[in-house]
Input
Amino acid sequence: MSLPSLDSIETPAALVDEDRLETNLQRAAAYVREHGLRWRPHTKTHKVPELAARQLQAGASGVTVATPREAEVMGAVADDVLLAYSPVGASKLARLMALPGRVRLSVAVDSREVLAGLAEAARGAGRRVGVLVELDLGMRRVGVPTPEEAVVLAREAAGTQGLEYQGVMFYPGHIRMPMAEQGPALAEVSRRLGTFLETLGAAGLKPGIVSGGSTPTLWRSHEVVGMNEIRPGITPFFDRASAWMGACGWDEVAYSVLATVVSTAVPGQAVIDAGSKALAKEELPVGGYGALLERPDVVVHALSEEHGMLDLSRTSWRPRVGERVRVVPNHVCVSVNLQDELWAVRGGQVVGRWDVTGRGRGPSSSRN
Output
């Protein structure tokens, strides 16, 4: 396939720095090896099977997904798929059961209703599906809140035909402060997890898999006692939030959105053609919706659907109409979900292209 020059790509366009991507993958792989952790990265960030294959080649034991569509796409390259989201509804269950037989499917569960539906679907498809009981260790979004409830679900999963109780999982998504300040919050997660593990062990239901982790807490994962698997998603790319929290340096961010300056009519401001439909509208405590990769002091201070407004008050740089810039969004996952494709670049040259095939609900969905 002939690749275009970077200058000829129409903006806005999502770019991935190939060298930084590879460095980030190898660094994550080295960390889990050093600390004896399994690495089952969450592919919701990139939604690209080729990148999942790269993670597996780097040492990941499997992949994590959030939707049946992601499971279908990643099942083409991965033999171990964890759906970290309780599937509710016959259509979703049917799609999961239709995954290739070689795929070892595991599912997060926090209710008997989901467990029953999953078991019925598994038996009907002649599959054996792994179950991870989801715990709430402070996120207060999903997950059973008490060890006793975890025991009930684990015991039922262990004794139900079509299911296999494999362990527990949690997501410490409430820990979003700078990495240096995470100690007390991680200690509390470790304490609460210990209570669950002790109770499950006493009931004869010691979990083989204890899955957790996130990108903000990635490099301190080894401090959570009892956890043996992590599922970071943003790690291959990183983003402005990751840099703010100290999970990466600014020179390690691999993802940016290429944009063109379309107006400088308002003094102290430049407008680019990447708005909320390219960057997403998620805020950070430091303000703004993104910053320029080469000029991090220039912040996207406001967004509308097709316009991004750059604040020039802290820089002497005055861009010209037609000039191109690269914007690091606050949250890469949402930005990627707005793209049709990702362009791999190295040294100002386009070296690859990936379709974001894990977006949406897949070919069977109907949209108006």
User: Anything to note?
Assistant: The CA atoms of residues 25 and 236 lie 6 Å apart. The two ends are 32 Å apart (CA to CA). Residues 364-368 have pLDDT under 50 and may be disordered. The chain is about 30% helix and 25% strand.
